[in-house]
Amino acid sequence: MSKFSDFAKARREGTKMVPVPSVSIMPERDLGKAPALECLHLGIDFGGLKAVDDFNITVGKTEICGLIGPNGAGKTTVFNLLTKVYTPTRGTIMVDGHDTAGMGPARVNQLGVARTFQNIRLFNSLTVEENVQIGLHNRIRCGMVPGILRLPRYWKSEREFHEQALELLDFFGMADLAGHEAGSLPYGAQRRLEIVRALATGPKLLLLDEPAAGMNPSETAELMENIVKIRDQFQIAIMLIEHDMSLVMNICEGICVLNFGKIIAKGTPEEIQANPQVIEAYLGSGAQGGAGAPKGGEAA
Amino acid sequence: MKKISKTTWSTISTYALVIVAFIAVQVLSGAGLISHSLQGQLVPICAYVCLAVSLNLVVGISGELSLGHAGFMSVGAFTGVIVAACLARAGVEAEVLIFAVSAVVGAVVAGVIGLIVGIPVMRLRGDYLAIVTLAFGEIIKNLLNIIYIGVDDAGLHFSMRDSASLGMEQGTIIINGPKGAVGIDKISTFVMGIVLVLITVAVVLNLVHSRSGRAIMAVRDNRIAAESVGINVTKYRLMAFAVASALAGAAGVLYAMNYSTIIPSQFDFNQSILILVYVVLGGMGNVRGSIIAAAFLTVLPELLRPINDYRMLLYAVVLILVMVVPHLKVYQRFVDMIRVRVLKRSAASEGAAAAEGGASHE
After folding, report:
1. Mutation test of the interface with chain A: which of B11, B228, B239, choosing the one with the most A Cβ atoms within 10 A?
2. How far off is chain B from A106, nearest CA to CA, in Å?
3. Helices in chain B by DSSP H: which ranges?
């Protein structure tokens, strides 16, 4: 029986099923139980270079997942693929059970993927509050005409924008900065604001690209708390790229190690620390087993 | 305790500027202190202010360099002239009504043209976008050069060959190809101009401070980040472009109705550059600045008329000075000094308020 007749049958019976068009091995699934993210044989070529190849991963609905690897391993490229900044050469990305084939970055965000950037990308000339309000863009509606004519709908939506933005900022203790220009904030606050802005879009999966970069140990500790707090409060999946091993090993439930564009290991923090391939990737083939595994506190 | 925010202040001061200028001009002209030639410049000033403010929406708020603004102005101007001629023929006499209807139709047509032009153009960025908008401005100008439109009892007649091929017995020719529109009723007044300026400023400021405006500015500040938070980049660039075109169209109607004749070659590249100069001089994204710059630079050649031989030379010198002076160290130090003093004073008054009864002794 063909895939599409299955789909029709599922429709008749009232269960929500999606056929998976691009990859045949992926089973059809119940949308309600779909994981936050599923990648199958994901890959991209830059010219002759396979920057990412055969990337398979599943991230559960409230999982914190780490993506680590040496410099140039392709970690940020994976994030750019997931958010469609790059169009994958091959493979499938499923977000919350929906295939993202053919979607652009904005559409993928509306489906539930939000991200921060390795090199901070805020709307620098706008205020902190406006930055968060732009994050809320697709959650509060008000068209151009009501905006220009200042219809009651505009005032209502602006009130919602203001309240929700402040509520989110308050959650991260940034409410008092609301009126400041985003570009004038100190570095740590800019990083936090990027997370708030990403959360404002109401994601199901939050991608954090080196959230602890440039932070001192006490700031990193606070960030760690915040990440867990975000997961518990918003009930979302978080995937993070990070070089600070203490952070990764402490809060990630699953870790995925990337080297030369390929996954070399997947597992719990303990498994990863004991994995000889990972040790080799980080320290070279001459290293003694176990001696220099990416343990807590060590920046790779 | 309610503090008025910085943006609210700048909005209020922008409207206040226009209204104060209006009152000042009315008082001065009542006292007979405004020369005849300057009197004639009042409506063009309003038109240029509208054009500068609307172009600022594209260049300053949306961050795209557009060099074809005069094209949209001409679309509005000629559409407005046609509408006004038809209304006059239909027996409408109220000038305000004729002007209002013409301006609205002119704005809508220019906005639609802006949308049509914008759809292909908005695939480009930066310099490429500037070049293509320049070309579109020229295309519009050259199209208007070969259009002949007349009206008689049977309705509108349209031709692209010559006025004879319109096939009218006793109608009037509204647009006569390269000779432009002739016999326009001069119905624009300074009051209409000020109203249009206020409407233009309101549209731009209201748009900027709304959900759509924030999206437009987000795209300007960081395109990739804007996409990552789910903003449809093309949609909002197009929105800014089309709204600006519509406003330019309305300004074109105001401009056209101030003269008895307008010709397509008036709306050339130089005109677009002139409007861009107002925007750059007034400050990108600064609506108040655009208003001041447009008014100042339109009046300046008139004020310099007594030294007729050198006035364009002086005009150029003033332009250069305005660009150079803000970057001079002496000037910056002077501004900083004033700023520090003002801050100190406001801090002192705030401190006094905070101290209430139990003030410190030092």
Report:
1. B228
2. 4
3. 6-30, 36-56, 69-89, 95-121, 126-145, 190-208, 211-221, 223-228, 233-256, 269-282, 287-303, 311-324, 329-355
* CB contact (8 A) between residue A106 and residue B232: yes
> pLDDT tens, B245-302?
999 999 999 999 999 999 999 999 989 999 998 998 888 889 999 999 999 988 887 8
Report the Cα B22 to chain-centroid distance in Å.
Answer: 17
Set of chain A residues whose Cβ sits within 8 Å of the Cβ of B212: 143-144, 147
Q: At what angle do helices B69-89 and B36-56 cross, to 10 degrees?
A: 120
- Is residue A71 less than 8 Å (CB to CB) from chain B? no
Place of tokens 């900044």: A85
pLDDT tens for chain A, residues 1 to 300? 444 445 445 445 544 444 444 443 444 555 567 789 999 999 999 988 999 999 999 998 889 999 999 988 999 999 999 999 999 999 999 998 888 988 999 999 999 999 999 999 999 999 999 999 999 999 999 999 999 999 999 999 999 999 999 999 999 999 999 999 999 999 989 999 999 999 999 999 999 999 998 888 998 999 999 999 999 999 999 999 999 999 999 999 999 999 999 999 999 999 999 999 888 888 776 544 444 444 444 443
Q: What is the DSSP letter of B154?
A: T
CA proximity to A155, closest of B293, B210, B42: B210
Pick from B202, B222, B243: CB nearest A123: B222
> A157 vs B211: CB contact, 8 Å cut-off?
yes
Q: Under DSSP, is residue B230 helix (H, G, I), strand (E, B) or coil?
A: coil
CA distance A7 to A3: 6
Contact A144 B210 (CB under 8 A): yes
Residue A96 corresponds to which tokens in the numbers above? 């919350």
Q: Is B362 helix (H, G, I), strand (E, B) or coil?
A: coil
Flag if A123 and B212 touch (Cβ within 8 Å): no
Of A116, A85, A110, the C-alpha closest to A96 is: A110
Are the Cβ atoms of B231 and A104 closer than 8 angstroms? Answer: no
Judged by DSSP in three states, B265 sits in helix
Query: Which domains are seen in chain A, by residue range?
Result: 1-112+204-300 (3.40.50.300), 119-202 (3.40.50.300)
- Pairwise CB contact (< 8 Å): B211 & A142: yes
Q: Which residues of B touch A138 (CB under 8 A)?
A: 230
**Alpha carbon of B222: minimum distance to chain A alpha carbons (Å):** 6
> Which one-letter amino acid corresponds to residue B55?
L
Angle at B74 between CA B38 and CA B39, to 5 degrees: 10
ipTM value, please give it: 0.83
> So where are chain B's domains?
6-311
pTM of the entire structure?
0.85
Fold of B6-311: ABC transporter involved in vitamin B12 uptake, BtuC (1.10.3470)
